[in-house]
Amino acid sequence: MAQQERGKRSRQSILEAAAQVFDECGYDAASTNDILARTGLTRGSLYHHFPSKEAIALALVAAHGEALTVPDQPVKLQAVIDLTMQFARRLQTDPVLRASVRLAVEQTSFSVPPETAYEQSSAAILGLLQEAEERGEILPGVDVREAASTIVGAFTGLQIMSQAYTKREDLPERTGVFWRFLLPGLAIPGLIGRLRTTPPPVDAES
Amino acid sequence: MAQQERGKRSRQSILEAAAQVFDECGYDAASTNDILARTGLTRGSLYHHFPSKEAIALALVAAHGEALTVPDQPVKLQAVIDLTMQFARRLQTDPVLRASVRLAVEQTSFSVPPETAYEQSSAAILGLLQEAEERGEILPGVDVREAASTIVGAFTGLQIMSQAYTKREDLPERTGVFWRFLLPGLAIPGLIGRLRTTPPPVDAES
Description:
The structure is a homodimer of 206-residue chains.
Chain A lengths: L1 H24 L6 H8 L3 H7 L3 H14 L9 H18 L1 H11 L9 H20 L9 H23 L4 H12 L6 H4 L14
Helix pairs in contact in A: 1-2, 1-4, 1-6, 4-6, 5-7, 5-9, 7-8, 8-9
């Protein structure tokens, strides 16, 4: 049991070290030596968990999916907004998530199709938009697939721009501004005033 | 004169070769050897025009600004839409522009602040939005600076996602979808139906 626990911790420390190295250098420039140097583990221990740099990157991409926890909200458009806000906040503090986003955005020799991250995000948002549509929250005539894809694409760019200007410090604010521009083309008029486009209170997350 | 012309052609061929190499490999992995191999020029000729890889990258960033030619349109919101559509089209075919965008988006050792490309785009769009505001095309209460920044950020992400899915083939379509969602939060209601959110006819460009 203690050994299992140690193994789990080693694996997590490799992922965090790799995330930092990918986040700083990009995938192609990162080496397993750089990663090892930050963990204090042996090369054998690294290879025990991950046979290659690519295997580490794959595990990081999986972390991207885990960050898409759907908030429990009676108003489903509020859940979509909160999902992007929580993702924005986690990008500020979580190097593993940052690295997974960078792997999706940059064109590298990493061979997993970068669509994976977009597919995960689009699917999570589309599911909520379909529920919102069933509840009558969406304007008639809106194509929710187009909406999901536009939200994911726009958010991808907003977080890159926020990274360039403020190291993502202003990302929740930029996300809120985006929502205030988008909602009149997406939500029924009576709902817009009731939607919160600022980050949810911290104690409401879990 | 003939020599001047030859010099100009060499310079352009270096820029195009560099754009291809940066677009394929990213800035850090690109070498001046790769660039030279595609031009058939001598190393001396390369260094005559550009003392370093960074100097080439700087010239490519300047090309980004040149691509932002403001369309002449009586309706200024239409000019903003057309600007993004023309940019989308040029991204499909112009490797120099693609490379300049990639230099802005990816975090590399290239030391020019990536804000430059965002600043160029935001300034061009903000100028048009301010004219649109003066002409009464913009909804009361809209902050045109926020709008310009949101449009640039969102477009940045949409073109990355379009690159990942279709090598930018569907970028004009994604751009049109984005505008149809955004306009109800930006334009006065009476104007929206009169705005074209498809690419402008080719003969209307110059």
